[in-house]
Amino acid sequence: MRNAFCSAMVRLGGERDILFLTGDLGFMALEPLQQALGPRFINAGVAEQNMISVAAGAASQGEQAWAYSIAPFVYGRPFEQIRNDVCLHDFDVKLVGNGGGYGYGVMGATHHAIEDYGVMCALQNMRVLVPAFADDLAPVVARMADDPHPAYLRLGRCELPKGWALPDYAPWRCLLSGQAGVLVAIGPGAGGVLAAAAELDEAARPEIWVVSELPLVEDSMPPALLARIAAGPGLFVLEEHVAQGGLGQMLALALLRMGVRPARFGHFHAHGYLSGSYGSQAFHRAENGIDPARVLAEIDRGVNA
Amino acid sequence: MPLSPNAAAAPDGRGSNRADPNRARARLLRMHYEARVGHIGGNLSALDAMLHLHGAVLDERDLFVLSKGHSAGALYIALWAAGTIDEDELTRFHRDGTTLAGHPVAGWHRRIVFATGSLGHGAGLAAGAALARRLRGEPGDVYCLMSDGECEEGSVWEALIFARHNRLANLVLLIDANGLQGFGGTDEVASLEPLGARISGFGLDVIEIDGHDPTALDAALARRGDGPLVVVLRTVKGRGVSFMEGRMEWHYLPLDEAQYRRALDELGQG
């Protein structure tokens, strides 16, 4: 997604003035943006707290400031700067975190981001965007740029099955029909489960939806989705994020408020580091039960229980 | 031009000059006495510089960032002296429903752009504002007032590196070096002295002055180079009130009536 993000930002930089700050990251990815923005592309160095304060200070003067790093370094290290300097003032600052979830794999736990959007959604004025596919980046970046408020963008690696006809971007999209309940996924992990589910008969697979914007806006949840949840055999949520503050909790609360009651509720989410061993993103997904095979097997078991 | 046409002489309705240092001190003490709150010592150490900045230095295009947000009272008094906060507003300091909180909140006064109070944020905010102004070709300088204890925050040094590297010549960082912090002297807790030399070691232009002398401040601010300027204000915590001067407890304590009356007498404002 980094290349798609870079292309979208180059396009944005050609349309309006933006200030782009990086925490010394972007090698072999952001050079086209660096070239396009000239003095408006600033390597702020390995100093993320200052980078966020600088972004907020620039935004106070009318700039739209984007701040980029590996995900935990952009939402975790400078948390207070995000809370105080950006969100308290509702400044037009965009945070971009690369490697959401277990995206950095065997690079180790310090580089993972499995509580990022829960933390960000706890802050006032903050919106979170979690594109599932590389093709989402152009519309997602445009939506962020058009909304002069704080936002956090979680990037990952696109896993869209080859040749898949993706519907136009929307905060909620139905990607695959199915009869075995409803699966709501967030982030690139939707791609893998999509590919695996497509191999199953419609009667044996869940209807798959992907959501890309948080916190959830209840008024804009698709009526067709709500109807399917209410009438179907179960609702399941898949996310590469811990349960606390995650999509599962947000969706359950939204449905409770709306009086929509699924027959059963299953939640596939990150737990952390269960074995104390480390590996690829696929390794951690499997260990946490959020890999496509396990998710679909558990849904089958739950629906047919 | 100054923020108000004759800011240094804004009247208080009784014919005296609000910007007179002792008059301003007395009003600051009254504000804290009536609200029964502390943080007086650091307000008094920073008051002279803030009075001068807001009364005679800053113009309409300049931006001021109070990074040592616990000196909010001195900021309110400086703005009152400059004629942009009225007497009625001061009476709501620290009350329910106020905008004059114990640490600045943003959005109600054009001179208070940022909510501050957690230390180590102001320098980065000011650097970002200065950078944006340069990119946009906009005039005006950005002034940020920090404390010496605040310089123990790593983010301050991140900001110094950034400001120096990007040669933000429209940025002035002032440090109220009163030598006392929350639970001890700065030399006892985490000494950064010689503070000016350490900052100049980062490549910034540094001037150390008597922080209670407006003439010295004017001279320091006139020495602008091609990068940010740092002015270390050597000050006295509790300045102007004998029993507060140099005493750590006045970081916290409110005044009782006898102390308040005695302080006013010392200031010739009884």
Instruction: Give the C-level CATH assignment of chain B.
Output: Alpha Beta
What is the CATH level 1 assignment of the largest domain in chain A? Alpha Beta
Number of strands of chain B: 7
Give me the CATH architecture of chain B, please: 3-Layer(aba) Sandwich
**Numbering strands along the chain, what is their spatial order in the largest sheet of chain A?**
2-1-3-4-6-5-10
Task: Please tell me about this protein's structure.
The complex is a heterodimer of chains A (about 300) and B (about 270). Chain A has helices spanning about 1-15, 30-35, 50-60, 70-75, 80-85, 115-120, 135-145, 190-195, 225-230, 245-260, 280-285, 290-305; strands spanning about 20, 40-45, 65-70, 95-100, 125-130, 150-155, 170-175, 180-185, 205-210, 215, 235-240, 265-270. Chain A has two domains: about 1-155, Thiamin diphosphate (ThDP)-binding fold, Pyr/PP domains (Rossmann fold, 3-Layer(aba) Sandwich), CATH 3.40.50.970; about 170-305, Rossmann fold (3-Layer(aba) Sandwich), CATH 3.40.50. Chain A contains twelve helices and twelve strands. Chain A has about 300 residues and is an alpha/beta fold. A seven-stranded mixed β-sheet of chain A has the order 2-1-3-4-6-5-10, with helices on both faces. A five-stranded mixed β-sheet of chain A has the order 7-9-8-11-12, with helices on both faces. In chain A, helix 8 links the parallel strand 8 and strand 9 (about 205-210). Chain B has helices spanning about 20-35, 40-55, 70-80, 85-90, 120-135, 155-165, 185-190, 195-200, 215-220, 255-265, and strands at about 65, 140-145, 170-175, 180, 185, 205-210, 230-235. In chain B, a hairpin with a 2-residue loop joins strand 4 and strand 5 (about 185). With about 270 residues, chain B is of the alpha/beta class. In chain B, the strands form two sheets. A five-stranded parallel β-sheet of chain B has the order 1-2-3-7-6, sandwiched between helices. Chain B has a two-stranded antiparallel ribbon with strand order 4-5. Chain B has a single domain (about 20-265), classed as Thiamin diphosphate (ThDP)-binding fold, Pyr/PP domains (Rossmann fold, 3-Layer(aba) Sandwich), CATH 3.40.50. Chains A and B meet through helix 3 and helix 5 of A and helix 5 and helix 6 of B.
